Known about the structure:
The chain has helices spanning 17-34, 55-65, 83-96, 113-117, 125-141, 179-188, 200-216, 238-260, 272-278, 286-292, 299-311, 328-341, and strands spanning 2-7, 38-41, 70-77, 101-106, 145-148, 153-157, 171-174, 191-193, 228-234, 294-297, 316-322. The strands form two sheets. It has a nine-stranded parallel β-sheet with strand order 8-7-4-3-2-1-11-9-10, with helices on both faces. It has a single domain (2-346), classed as Luciferase-like domain (TIM Barrel). It starts with a strand and ends in a 6-residue tail after the last helix. The protein is α/β, with parallel strands linked by helices. It contains twelve helices and eleven strands.
Amino acid sequence: MKFAFFTHLPWPEGREAAAVIADTTEQVRYAEELGFHSAWLAEHHFTRYCIGSSSLIVATHLAARTERIRLGTAVLVSPLHNPLRLAEDTATLDLISGGRLDVGFGRGSGSGYEYRGYNIDPDESQDRFQESVRMIQGLWTTPDFTMDGKHFQASHANLVPMPAQQPHPPIYLAATRNPVTLDFVVSTGHSLCIAVVQDTAEALDLCQRFVDKSAEEGFNLPKSEIPFFRYFYVAETEDEAHHDTLDKLNWVIDIMQWRNNLEEGSEVYQRMDNWRRQRHQLPLSYDYLAENRAIIGTPQQCLDKINALRDEGIEYFGCNFDFGGMEHEKVLRSMKLFSEEVMPHLK
Length: 347
């Protein structure tokens, strides 16, 4: 199996933003030391859920601090950006990293508040997504590239610099519940990637539908190459794993509900305790997320759950160790235990 490190760069109240970046840098360097194949960063905007709004800048910093580990974007919200700029920035990062970049693209948060913040109509997200992916790949690979899309245009554009990897960095595309998005992903011939926001059973079904459709289109992309991300924490005992993750996973649950209920603005300068007192509906429970979107437990429990995924064809497993502002030392301890007690049994 291949193993990935993944982070949303969460920013709970009371933490310094600079400390989040510093801790993430150390965690990615440690992931490289432990033999992880890749490290992936999320992109979100206007929220403490994730301070990876400029994830390519963070990834460039990580490229300078590492030597071997691949660096991925899970995902760049390409509809929000000028594809010319994204093509330039990703190509530059691919050069800086020595050809270690994996590029994931997606439509972003389903709530629409990020689109409203960028003054973009969320109803345009599908068309903008498809056009942006086609345009970036075209710019990476085609001299004098021209495209006349509904939202994005280029006329005889020559990308400078070109990416180090040829014909271009590997592309991964996110899809969840929209069949139109899945059909587009299949049509590109690029791999799917699976986020932590979808239940495991639904995500496995999505992977199978992708593989089936890919075969029908003649691409025959394997399930084994789909990065499959889950919230992850391993501890010496089940009680310790539960104790360490209870408040952290509840923070994730709460901020997802909170930000998805905002009609305008952001939760950044408000207090979560006030939201918890004012809300009229409870979110999903800790037990639900721990069972359906996470792997949390002892080394043997985690090994059993990953083996169950492996039985379904998953061979590229991504660990979201740092969720909800998990203490840095506990993240490193969980990573170490995973590398010593779980990874060796999954080679």
